[in-house]
Structure prediction request, 277 residues.
Amino acid sequence: MGALLALASATCYGIVDFAGGLLSRRIHFAVVTFLGQIGGLLLALMLASALPADAVRSADVLWGALSGVGSGAAMHFLNRGLSRGAMSIVVPVSAVTGVALSVLCGVCFLGDRPTPLAWLGICVTVPALWCVSGGGDRGTGTARATVDGLLASAGVAVQYIGLAQADPGSGVWPVVAGRVTAVVLLLPSAWRYRSRFRQAPWPLAQAVVIGAGAALGLVLYLWAAQQQMLALAVVLASLYPAIPTVLGLALLNEKVSRWQVSGLLGAGGAVVLLTLG
Prediction:
């Protein structure tokens, strides 16, 4: 069940990245990121109110808040990179490095001990994620896009590691704490571009819905991490770059490269290995 929840989380994140990347080219990325966190907060509050929690400790709230710091940073730099049209660089760098940091932390500090089969799946995942996003094809603004990807990856790792430390009895409230923290942290950058909020309401509403989808993905990841070790939950949830690739092929008539075909096949093999492991 934990593997299915992590894969569902990856699906949500993949759809969100695809939609957010397109939207960030139409309206300023800071507006997309801030409104996305507002949408995520609203959805998290609805889920937390509907799903009972046994006990919410202050430690759970603090872990959730730390996760929110990572979420805010990850989405800010990811959307900034996507707004520059550098998806083939930002997405693989953020995904691969985020996976590596999270797995190393889980193994070195949290006592995770993946099986040999799971280790093989983890090793397959890293190059598969890179290939599925185009193998890091170089274009203009490569250096800036790489920096955005690395900064986003640090945020991804903090987001996943922090949220996984919350007690299962706290329900969805750690996610709520994270959304509140992200909204507060992103408010100054959104305020700088407050004039952009006067744009047509439909794109702004889209940003809110996209953020709600990201929060749903985070909730699914939280449930997955509560049922299996952090390293496996992170790796499965981080397969999300495959989704924008598939959507680009299906909806935008994009051409698939040999890199992407090999990456998609590798991602499928990694899912099998991690599930069996």
